[in-house]
Design brief:
GO terms for molecular function: chloride channel activity; protein dimerization activity. Belongs to the anoctamin family. One of its GO terms (cellular component) is plasma membrane. It holds the Pfam family Anoct_dimer. The protein has 769 residues and is of the alpha+beta class. The chain has 25 helices and 14 strands. It has a 4-stranded antiparallel beta sheet. A two-stranded antiparallel ribbon has the order 4-5. It has a two-stranded antiparallel sheet with strand order 7-8. A hairpin with a 6-residue loop joins strand 7 and strand 8. Helix 15 runs parallel beside helix 20, helix 16 runs parallel beside helix 19 and helix 18 packs parallel to helix 20.
């Protein structure tokens, strides 16, 4: 059975020069020869056609090679089996209450849980299953070992850093390198026992189907097949989706209460329908929901840290640390010099740190300029389109006598145009971030991915959140008053509609958030099937996922990294926390999207992508820091949103000073136009100004109330958040005891005393000790 496959193509009429083809062939020959010298077994196959010949080189590692590198890579070895722990809190609660759990399901071939310790060849007899050489190492462990050999094997001159399959792929010597899936995912036509299904079929039957949308994810099976990094992603997505359920219920309740309060709200009775809609979101319930979501976000992250620590321990990754990384192939090819690595003592490509810092500083300046200039130009285009939309809507409104609603329709239309612009600019920003990251010459893949992730998130943060921030905090703030309107570049500053800025912000958030989710899910669902239909229509055979050109072709580790970490989910987290005061239904739409997202991603990994190399990880990396920053930013933004965008505080002040039932509140918020502007005595506008356009005492009282509310809101919420952080430890106490116990067992197992292991029979899966 093959552990890995290398693929390359040879075309009879190739545009490449004969010299280049000979160079690539020489590299391949030396590479395969060195692999054979390292003990790897090779088996070559090929398929020929008129246009090209595709060569396949199947690689497999014999027992001696596996044993040698298992000790060098510090793989974990099983000492003793134990029952699998139940990590689903809801399942444990329902069991205690004797309530049937429809989400639970019995899965075949669940990976066993073991006491484990670092593998040592000299202690082989102490490890379970060592007598069976074919099944002792899992498929993911075999892949890791073979990929490690592929990454360190020389194909040219070592002093030129001509090492590793990654650089050969970059040079074009190979077109693909990947581990094979374990057979087809399609279920047999005849009835078979579940235990007879292969791992891929088990994942398809019990996880990657739409009918399993309400079932628990088989995380142990996912980890066994794809590795810890991908399993942690799905664990994070499932955990986040489960926590969205209470937030969605409370948000829906707040929305319904706002809907019901429109009939009993005194100000809503004396204003037009467009103003009444504003009270749908602008009521005391949104203040409660803002505080609730602030507590929800921090509590969710604290319990995710506990879940993450528990899974890392269960999967033997708690103390995992990446070894000294090799230079990226692109870095090795473009580095100007060769110097000794101070850690490994080996000569490798070198790029001066000062030059890199200079490039990173220049890249930062480019980011700032692009965020300003391109986004400004984009909004000029948006403004032009919005003017066109508004003109068309207003003309149509006059014709059908629907004029009072034209403003809302125009706002919705402009938001849809804004969404299209955001999606377009997102592609531009991502391409720019990729080119800047390449130009900065980061040495390792981890440094490269972190830099790329940060740039993309900054770009997308500004791209998606700039228009909501503008509506929430800038639109209508610098309008002026009749006769003295504020202008920018000769154009009158934009003001909010009769319903206020909060309803416009809610419309923006709904269209941007839900629209992006719908478009993304439709693309993920439709594109693979459209490719299949296109190939069938042209009479082409659809290649299997294990072929060099499956559909889609995005299957390498580098291309999966950004998709795997899913910045869209992090942006979604920002929408449901930062602007939740304006859109309490955001958690509900996020919940519905994520239910679909889990199954779409599962189907892609099981049925469409090549099998990626299993990677180890103990957390979700830099994304957790970004989530924490967003949760703290949400407290500040919601405080300002309630204070300056909502009418909550003006109503509260009016109730305190004038009338508890809000009789006359609408007149309280309106000012008279200056006599110099109009002779009509009843020309009024929304502001706290006197007849000459000066701010009244009420304005300054309200400003003091708003600033006081922001200070009180932030201090109370942050104090409670710190209390939650203190009360919820990052690592459960029971897990801390297990870690100490297991480290003791590992030392005993690897000691020279042969009876040490027999002394202790209890424990749980060990982390590296």
């Amino acid at each position: 059975e093959s552990d890995f496959v290398l693929v390359w193509e040879v075309k009879p009429r190739n545009s490449r020069s004969e010299r280049r083809k000979a160079q690539l062939a020489q590299w391949r020959n030396k590479f395969t020869q060195n692999l054979q010298n390292a003990g790897i077994l090779l088996e070559k196959e090929e398929t020929a056609s008129e246009k090209k010949t595709i060569h396949y080189l199947n690689l497999s590692a014999p027992w001696d090679v596996l044993v040698y590198y298992a000790e060098e890579l510090i793989l974990r070895a099983p000492l003793q089996a134990q029952p699998n722990p139940n990590f689903n809190t809801s399942d444990r609660i329902l069991r205690k209450l004797y309530i049937p759990n429809l989400m639970a399901e019995s899965l075949p071939n669940r990976p066993l849980d073991y006491y484990t310790c670092a593998f040592r060849k000299s202690k082989m007899e102490k490890f379970l299953g060592c007598e069976n050489h074919d099944t002792y190492f899992t498929n993911t462990q075999r892949q890791r070992i073979v990929y490690e050999l592929l990454a360190r094997t020389v194909y040219g001159k070592r002093k030129r850093a001509e090492v590793g399959v990654a650089r050969l792929l970059n040079e074009g010597a190979y077109t693909a390198a990947f581990p094979l899936h374990e057979g087809p995912f399609e279920l047999p036509e005849y009835e078979v026992h579940p235990d007879e299904l292969n791992q891929r079929q088990v994942l398809f039957r019990y996880w990657a189907r739409w009918s399993k949308w309400y079932k628990y994810q088989p995380l142990d099976h996912i980890r066994e097949y794809f590795g810890e990094k991908i399993a942690l992603y799905f664990a994070w997505l499932g955990f986040y989706t489960a926590w969205l359920l209470p937030a969605a219920v409370v948000g829906a309740f707040v929305f319904v209460s706002g809907l019901m309060s429109m009939g009993t709200n005194t100000p809503a009775h004396v204003v037009c329908m467009c103003w009444q809609v504003g009270y749908l979101f602008d009521h005391p319930g949104t203040v409660f929901f803002s505080v609730f979501m602030s507590f929800w976000a921090v509590t969710f992250l604290e319990y995710w840290k506990r879940k993450m620590a528990t899974l890392a321990h269960h999967w033997d990754c708690m103390d995992f640390q990446e070894e000294e990384e090799r230079p990226r192939p692109e870095f090795a090819a473009m580095a100007p010099s060769i110097e000794y690595n101070p850690v490994t003592g080996v000569k490798e490509p070198y790029f001066p740190e000062r030059a890199r810092l200079s490039r990173m500083l220049t890249g930062s300046m480019v980011i700032i300029i692009m965020l300003g200039v391109i986004h400004h130009l984009g909004y000029i285009s948006l403004g032009f389109l919005c003017v066109c939309v508004c003109v068309c809507v207003c003309v149509h409104a006059c014709v059908v006598f629907f004029f009072p609603q034209a403003g809302n329709i125009a706002n919705i239309s402009s938001s849809m145009v804004n969404l299209a612009l955001i999606l377009l600019m997102g592609q531009v920003y991502t391409a720019l971030a990729l080119q800047l990251t390449k130009w900065e010459m980061h040495r390792t893949q981890t440094q490269y991915e972190d830099a790329f992730t940060f740039k993309v998130f900054v770009f997308q943060f500004v791209n998606f959140y700039s228009s909501p921030f503008y509506v929430a905090f800038f639109k209508g703030r610098f309008v002026g008053y009749p006769g003295h309107y504020g202008t920018l570049l000769g154009m009158r500053n934009e003001e909010c509609g009769p319903g206020g800025c909060l309803i416009e912000l809610a419309e923006q958030l709904f269209i941007i958030m839900v629209g992006k989710q719908l478009i993304s899910n439709v693309q993920e669902f439709v594109i693979p099937y459209s490719i299949c239909i296109q190939r069938l229509c042209y009479g082409k055979k659809i290649p299997p996922v294990n072929s060099p050109h499956p559909y889609p072709s995005t299957s390498s580790v580098e291309l999966l990294t950004y998709d795997l970490l899913h910045s869209s989910t992090v942006l979604q987290f920002g929408f449901i926390t930062i602007f939740v005061a304006a859109f309490p239904l955001a958690p509900l739409f996020a919940l519905l999207n994520n239910w679909a997202e889990v199954r779409l991603d599962a189907h892609k990994f099981v049925c469409e992508y090549r099998r990626p190399v299993a990677e180890r990880a103990q957390n979700i990396g830099v994304w957790f820091n970004i989530l924490e920053a967003l949760s703290h930013l949400s407290v500040i933004v919601n405080a300002f949103l309630i204070a300056f965008t909502s009418d909550f505080l003006p109503r509260l002040l009016y109730q305190y000073k004038f009338d508890n039932d809000l009789n006359g509140y609408v007149n309280f918020t309106l000012a008279y136009a200056p006599p110099s502007y109009t002779s009509h005595p009843m020309c009024r506008y929304k502001a706290f100004r006197d007849n000459n356009g000066n701010y009244t005492l009420i304005y300054w009282e309200l400003l003091a109330v708003r600033l006081g509310f922001i200070i009180a809101f932030e201090h109370v919420v942050f104090i409670v958040l710190r209390a939650i952080d203190w009360m919820v430890p990052d690592v459960p106490e029971s897990l801390g005891l297990k870690v100490k116990r297991e480290r003791y067992l590992a030392k005993q197992a690897l000691a020279d005393n042969q009876e040490a292991l027999l002394v202790s029979h209890r424990g749980s899966a060990s982390s590296q000790g």
